[in-house]
Structures are given as C-alpha cells and as structure tokens.
Amino acid sequence: MSPQFRRRLVVVGHGMVGHRFVQAAIERGLTETHDVVVIGEEPRPAYDRVALTSFFEVGAEALSLLPEGEYDDPRVELVLGTAVEGFDPETRTVLLEDGRVLEYDELVLATGAAPFVPPVPGHELPGCFVYRTIEDLEAIRAAAATATVGAVVGGGLLGLEAANALAQLGLETHVVEMAPRLMAVQVDDAGGATLARHIESLGLTVHTGAVTSEVVAADGRAAGLSLKDAETIPAEVVVFSAGIRPRDALARAAGLDLAERGGVLVDERCRTSDAHVWAIGECAAPAGRMYGLVAPGYAMAEVVVDALLGGPGSFTGADMSTKLKLLGVDVASFGDAHATTEGALELVFADAVAGVYKKLVVSDDGRRLLGGVLVGDATAYGVLRPMVATPTNPGIELPDNPEELILPAGRGGVELGLPDEAQVCSCNDVCKSEIVEAAADGTTTRAGSTCGSCKPVVKKIIEEYFESVGKVVDRSLCEHFPLTRQELFDVVAVHGYRSFDQVVEAHGRGRGCDVCKPAVASVLASLVGGHVLEGPTRVLQDTNDAFLANIQRNGTYSVVPRIPGGEITPEKLIVIGEVARDFGLYTKITGGQRIDLFGARVEELPAIWRRLVDAGFESGHAYGKALRTVKSCVGSTWCRYGVQDSVQLAIDLELRYRGLRSPHKLKGGVSGCARECAEARGKDFGVIATEKGWNLYVGGNGGATPVHARLLAGDLDTETLVRYLDRFLMYYIRTADRLQRTAPWVESLEGGLDRVREVVVEDALGLGSELEAAMARHVDGYRDEWAATLEDPDKLRRFVSFVNAPDVPDPHITFRAEREQSVPGDVAGPVSLGTTVPVGSPR
Amino acid sequence: MTASPSAGVGVSTYTRVCRLDDIDVEGGVAGLVAGDAVAILRTHDGNVYAISNYDPFSNASVLARGIVGSRSTAEGDVPFVASPMHKQAFDLRTGQCLDDADVRIPTYDVRVLDGEVLVGPPQEH
After folding, report:
1. Is it true that A7-113+246-308 and A117-242 share their CATH fold?
2. What is the reported pTM?
C-alpha cells in the first residue's frame, strides 16, 4: 500500500457510528492511504440520535455531530441526501440512487437500524409515525399541533423517549406495551412496576400486557388504538416504537451472509462473508448478535479502522449496561440483570413509598456482583458498575452484607412534644421530667415496669434526651439486632428470609430474646404469611400467640371468639354460655363488644375451641398484635337517628381485616350517625356515617394516652372507603416501629396526617395499587387459626399441662368463687404433688 | 416410666419425661417430676436444661412457655428463658434470675439417653 496507489473506501451510512468511523479513520491515519467517500441518506450530517428527544428544546443545530457540514480532511468526501441502491462484491462497485456508480476497494456498511412497525391494520394511516430521525420528529410535532391524545406502541427505552416527546408536545399520552412490564429487556417485573408508577405520576397512562390489534381510523386518519381484550384508546397521534430491525437489505441483495435473527453476519474483526465488505453498528451482527446501543457500534468502528491499518483489534461483545434518566426517573441496568447465571441470588430492596426499586444479582457464594437493576434512585450505579464480575473480569469482591449497598441510610426521628409534667407511667406515677432526669443521671425509674404500655413513650423520651445532648441514639431492637423494626422489615424483604435463624445469622448475634423473636415473627407474618404455630416460627411467638389465647395472672388463659361488629345470634350466645358453664369459665363483656372467657387451663383450650369452632366461631385474635374488633352502634336498621347501616359495614370490615398482623393491636369502629355511639374516633380507624356516605378517621386510640382519630377523607362511598382503609393499614404495617400504634406512627411521619392523606387518598406516590394488592393477598390467604390448629396434631401437642402427665392439672392453678364466678385463688409458692401422682408416656 | 431406682438413701431417681424430639429447639415443655412442675428447655446448641416451672415473680407455673434466647454478659453468652408473664430472664444453667441478683430458682439434673429425656433430682449450685 504505497501512497501513489491510493485506495478508495466507501462508507454507506452517516449516522453516529458511520461518523465515528470516519473520525477514527482520520485520527489514526487511514486517510493517508485511502480516499473516503461517505454516503448519507438523510439530508443532514450525523447527529446525536441518543439525545433525539431534546430536539424540541434545542433544535437540530445543537444535535449535529458535524456542525461545519464537512470533515476537516480533504480526502473525505461527504455525499448527503442520497440513498444507495445496491453494491456488487464481484465488481466492487456501489450504485447510488442518482445513477452514479462508485468503485471501492473496501466497503463499510453502517446503515443502522429501522424501527419495527408491527403489521397491524391501519399502521400506514396518516397520523402514524416512527421515532428515529429529526424528520420523524418534525412530522410528529406538526401532527401534535392539532391533536389532544397520543399513544406510543412500545414501552422500551425508545418508546418511553417517544412518550416523553408526546407529553412535551402537550398531548395526553398513553404507553402501550405488549410485555407485562416496561423496559422488559433491561429491568425485571418489580422494577418495571416501579417505573410505571413514576411515569403514571407524571400524568401518562401505562398499559402493559396490551396487544395492539388495529389502528382505528376516522376521516382517513388515525383516531385510536384498538387493544386486544381491552378498551380502545383514543389517539390522533400514534408512534410505533416496538423495537428496531437491522437494515441489512443491501447486504442481503448482494448475497452476503446474514445472522439468523437479522443483521449482517460479521466476524470478530467486523468483516462480512466478503473479505472487502465490513459492517458496523446496528446493521451488524457480530457472532450473530445485534447491539442496539451506540457504544458497541463505536467499538466496532474502531475495530474496522484498526483492521484496515493491519492492527490486531477485535470485537468480542460489549457491556450492555445502561444508566439513563427517563421522564425524570433514574433507571440503570447492568451486567446479568435478569439473573440468568446458574445459582445466581437476588437481593431486592423495594421502597414503594419512595418509588425506589433496587436489585442486585450476586453469585451463589454471595461474593461476586453479577448485575443489577436500579429504578428511582441510581446513585449506586457508579459504585456498583465497576464491581460487576464477568467471565473475563473478576470484578471487586462484595462486602459481607452486600445489601448495605442498596439499602437506604437510616431514617430520622421525630419530636414527641410532651410537657415535662406529663405523667408517662400511670402505674408508677412517673412523669416525663423524672425520666429525663434519670437518663441524665444514669439511674432508672419504675416507668414501664408494671403493665408496660408506656414503654414506647419512655424509649422515645430517652432517645430524645440523648439526641438533645448530642449523643448518638442506638435504635437497635435489642442486643441481638442493630436494626429498627423498619430496617428489619427491609432486610427480611430484601433477602426473602423465611426463618429467624436466617435473619439472626446474617444480621444479628446470639440466639435472640423475648424482644426480637416476636418482632421477627411479626415481620415474617406480614411478608411470608402462614400459620403462627407452623414449624420453627412457633418458638418465636409470645405466649399469647403461642397458645392462641391471652395468659392471665395464674397461668391460665382467656378465650375471645370473634363476634364481628358485636352482632351475635341467640344460638351463638347460648353456645358461649354453655361452653363457659361446662368449663367453669369466668365471663365478662369486653370493651370491643365481645365476650371474654377466663380461666381456661392450657390443656382445655383445644376442647373449648372444638366446641366454639363447631358452632361457627373463629379466633378473635385478642392475643395477637393484630386486628381486634370493629365496634359498631346498631345503626339505621333499628335506630331512629341512624343514617347508614353501621352494623353491616362493621361486620364487613372486621371480616376483611381479621387475622391481619400489625406492629401493634388494631381496633376499628363504625357509627351510624354523628352521635358517634360506637366511639369510632377512639379507634385506629373510625368510620362515621353521613347523609352522603362515610367519613373516615384515623389514628385514634384509648388506653394510656387517649387520642382522637382525625378526619382523613369525607363523604366516601363504601368502595372508596375500603380502598383507602386497605392502603392506610398496609402503609402502617410496612413502616411503623415495633409496638407503635397508629397515632404515634402518623405523628412520626414527616408531614403527619397530611402525609398520610397524600399517600392514601391522593396516591401521590402511586403505590395505592400495590398496597391494595398486599391487602388482597391477606384477605385471600386468611384461614381461621384455631380451626387450622385443631386439624394438626403437631400444633396441638403443646396444649398439655405436663408432657408426661397430660391429664394431671397443674396444682398451681386454683380458683375461688367471687360474685358467683370462678376467679384465681392465691398461690404462695411452688406446690408439689408428691410422688404419688402417676406419670406416663406422653404418647 | 420411672427409671428403676432401688430403695435406699442417696439413690437418685430419674424420671423419663419425653422424647428429645418432643421439645422444639429453643422451646420448652412442662414435665411432672417427683410431683414437681419442671420446665425442660432446649437450646440451639443442642443442650437440654431443666429448671423449676414456677415463676416466683408471678407465682405462676409458666416458665416452660417462655421464649428461649441468649444474653451477653461479661462471662459470655448466657442461655436464658424469659418468663411469659413479666419477662424476667432466668439463666438456664443455674436458675439465677438475670434481672434480680436475689432471685434464683431450682434446677434439675437432666440427661438425654437414646433420644429420651430423663430428669433427675434438684441440683446444688
């Protein structure tokens, strides 16, 4: 190749990759030996197609990659606005559409890709567009000027860009995606759902799993999209962005080998089946695979320049990692985002409240990062991307708790605002200032040592004191876990743990205690479900949950069957009376309109419940941190003042939320008129009838620190009321601290009740449907715990006085009579039955 | 079944209470041993402990129904059961209350033979 025998290099296509090829050819001296002719089809030189959407804001000039219109090298000739008709490898000639024939020594195909338009009826109507060139965008802008609604077919990267463009043009915008999620290639289902919520919060409408069957016409123009199994979407502007196809027609006509799924087949030097023809960018298929990103195209351009210079460069695949901001939402996908590697494990952090979804894919030993997906917050991308291990690069070893890489930083505290003289512990008459003084002196008070109901407040006061003097407060659950309940909830959700052992081995120390074990059990109940006495979760439960009854001072239990809404038939009342009489139980009417049966020995519980279950009763969950009752007044059925059927609603709500496990007990109430006889505003959720519907109040409680529930929304129809309640309760369960009732939880949120209203009523975060779905799972999964226990010998075997003498009553339990009922007798110390009592095998 | 004690002073009687499998790991059962209510509890490391079932704080026979865990002390991790009544913790090895130095409850010798749990006489500490 001496200079006097100059050779000619023809480049077909002047897009981003063709331009990059020419630049590299100039920079690396290929033009010293070659004359370069570039043929471009579009009327303007290469421009930044990746930033195409900004065309409406910045114009074509700003996007141009070659603003001067020519290369600063006289040996490069740029021919624009001219299509290539074909080429002949035999004669090494290229035929242009204007009839010119160019001879070449080497030919580089950089023809790019074309949008794929699904062949649905009507796809060629006026008003249908693709999204690829500046001319496409100009045509869309012209059509949008007289339109109000637009639709994009395709919810991938480009489809969302196109949707953004339509929204920018002021159109009401729909995105129609055939796959069950947006950005199906880059993100997984949950990430796609988070992205969809973000996009919908911007006012766009997302239809996933939606197949376009036809473009509907009116007056000879596009007027809407007809969807299979769904309603027709009106749309005067339709943009097809359902993927791209390599433009390989020239190579096909010339008889070159093509890849099975399209694209010009090239080797690792990007050489086609003809030794003098090369292909780069989206029209090329190295090893049969097409790359729809610009970076691999640039890499291929460099490889061909290198090859023509006699260098050793090769293209062996590309990193398909992407990070971008789509419609203002950070989205990143890197490495093996779909966990296709054998044995790969997934760590997921999903904060529906904040609209964040993060997933790490790690190797089976947890030491290597294989890939991941970030939606809503991609700040970790910069750290994570270099850590990724590939077959040729071991990456960076992960730390011991890799989930730290995606978990949010700790959450802040809130002000309690109690006056110094406020009595905090009423059992022992301890006020706030005494607790603060004790904290300052390092001494203790008796606060919380009796009934324990003020413990959360005491903890909060002590935390606030230490924070006020600048000390870091340890919000650890207990000595075994350096986590709050919320953080515990997050790590269990992220790792998908199903047992205490898994959680404590990974995030705790020791073997747990009476604080963390029930907390883990509660989190597992919310996330995994299942029976509370199932297998290894049984030993995590407090004694009330462990025996599905409430322990009393002498070691016996009380039994509370559910009486929804407080309504009960005479027949059922008689059964309760008979059971109480036959087992010698003390009976008392509770504040929640039910009947409490006291004095049941542990070994009597199954027989008592057999009778109750047979009569149609279910567990009342009086023993659990769970929904207790929904109290009602008699309502419009009987009451001359009532305006709505409060009993029916109370029953419906109690049956809907029965068995729902929560950070603390939950109570509800429904009043049939403004007289409020059900005391609904003293409950976690209270409903009061109005002439038009229902007012919904939240965050009330009785107990040690009574709080009136406050109005969340007014004049609701029943369906909306239930929807808001579903959301409210699930939001509470997911984010409240251990033993935090709804009132302090509402106060702990930044913005308080207004924040709750934004999330629950206005659905500002777009997580309404997810919370509703979580509640639907609870409702569908509900089974009466006592009925299930009676059917399972393994669950029943602990209901004995003594494992080796199941028929011998514990002698420590004695009764005396008071007001014609049985009450606990006095016990002064351990009682021995002596050696005369026969003991035997348990089975 | 009572494991054949021969009559006489100084003979220790061991009562078969249950199979090891009858006790959940980190759970407990109540047994009747020579007329006493005894809590037999099993820890994660495989040990089995027997203590009085009687909680002196609440005067109730309930300790077998407590939550079993560990508490870190200067001497290392102590296996304990928390009373289900008011949560006082008792060292499973010694019966010592971990929340009140003045309170200690009886412990019993316990053996596991062929998967059977045998409880013997109260122990001296």
Report:
1. yes
2. 0.60
